[in-house]
TrEMBL record:
InterPro entries: Acyl_CoA_acyltransferase, GNAT_dom, NAA80. One of its GO terms (molecular function) is acetyl-CoA binding. PROSITE patterns: GNAT. Residues 1-145 form the N-acetyltransferase domain. Gene3D superfamilies: 3.40.630.30. It comes from the Eukaryota. GO terms for biological process: regulation of actin polymerization or depolymerization. One of its GO terms (cellular component) is cytoplasm. This is N-acetyltransferase domain-containing protein.
Length: 182
């Protein structure tokens, strides 16, 4: 069994297969997905694909972070559903780290995940502050200005209480941000 990780932009014959692999996990129009995949280049963004005997079985995208020049953001990490739990995700991530360090000369990799924290911890990733790939770091908490900011507790006496939140509502869509120094 031959396994290799290669940049998608140097292997364009895999574009449509890669589109299908990612869309099987996260639905998006083929046109939008293909446009995103076609932006892969030697400088970020870069899509890396995992091939097994010249068949695509995995993908990840490395995106630039404007506020962190020596880092990148890993997104759209996916392994074919029937092949998960067999070490292919680990291999893809390790090869991506080598690519980032040796080819792109980066020092840090960031990512966000929902539910895969254990997998990334095993690879050496640690939780960190949320970051934005569109600009500056995002604070964990923010001040919200609202019309009632000058009112006191007494001003709200007699107001109905809000309904309770569903169980685990705070954890359902919360991303965990992680980083690894190379």
């Amino acid at each position: 069994m031959e396994l290799k990780v290669v940049p998608l932009h140097l292997n364009k014959k895999y574009l449509s297969e890669c589109c299908k692999l990612i869309n099987d996990e996260w639905k998006r129009s083929d046109t939008a997905r293909l446009r995103s995949l076609e932006s892969s280049s030697d400088s970020l963004p870069t899509s890396l694909i995992l091939l097994r005997n010249d068949e695509i079985i995995g993908h990840l995208k490395l995106s630039p972070i404007p506020s962190i020049r020596d880092g990148c953001f890993v997104e759209s990490v996916v392994i074919e559903k029937g092949l998960r739990g067999k070490g292919f995700g680990r291999l893809l991530m390790e090869k991506a780290e080598e690519y980032c360090k040796n080819f792109l000369q980066l020092k840090t990799i960031y990512l966000s995940t929902k539910g895969q924290e254990g997998f990334y911890n095993k690879l050496g990733y640690m939780e960190c502050q949320p970051i934005s790939i569109y600009g500056n770091c995002m604070p964990l908490t923010s001040t919200i200005n609202c019309k009632n900011e000058n009112k006191t507790k007494e001003d709200f006496q007699g107001a109905p209480k809000p309904p309770p939140l569903p169980a685990n509502s705070f954890n359902q869509n919360v991303k965990t941000y992680m980083r690894k120094d190379l």
